[in-house]
Amino acid sequence: MLQFITMIFTTFFLGLFFAFADTPKSDSCEAVQDVTLEEFRWKYRLIVLTAPSASDHSFQQQLQQLIAEDAGLAERELRILALFQKGCSMLDEQEISSESASRVARQLEAGLSSFSFRLIGKDGGVKAFSDEMVSPEWLFGIIDRMPMRQREIRNR
Q1: Does residue 121 have a pLDDT over 80?
Q2: Total number of domains in the chain
Q3: Is 42 left (phi over 0), alpha (psi -120 to 50) or beta?
Q4: Residue numbers of the domain that contains 97
Q5: How many CA atoms lie within 13 A of 50 on its CB side?
Q6: Is the model's pLDDT at 129 over the cut of 70?
Q7: Which pTM was predicted?
Q8: Long-range contacts: 128-134, Cβ < 8 Å, 24+?
Q9: What is the CATH classification number for the domain harbouring 107?
Q10: What order do you get walking across the sheet with 78-84 strand by strand?
């Protein structure tokens, strides 16, 4: 049953990302969710993926690897923010405003013309950066060594 639910979630999540793959930034991205980095502080860890568009090969592969590990993402209280140069940027399965995407990209000094991966800790700091895809195992290893994560594990 869990595998079936995971498969449904994965299919739905990928479908939403790829549905907007080459949608140019326009008014359609303006009337949607506004996002700030501050709203995640002390609540969630954030994976920030940047790419020219949602159809970028590295982005697609990284996203597939991550959502295949959705239980690990949930356990570590991770959210996925995808920022695109072309098309609507997304927080998990919801579009975010182009102003939000631009603001977050500026705050992180993130260019959108190529693929990149950033891990933002619950304290709001950048904990890891790569301009190449990362494995979920590597990501979980980094998080699981963090003092805050160690406290979470002990308190459960």
Answers
A1: yes
A2: 1
A3: left
A4: 12-19+31-155
A5: 20
A6: yes
A7: 0.81
A8: 132/58, 133/58, 133/61, 133/62, 133/65, 134/62
A9: 3.40.30.10
A10: 94-95, 90-91, 78-84, 45-51, 116-120, 126-130
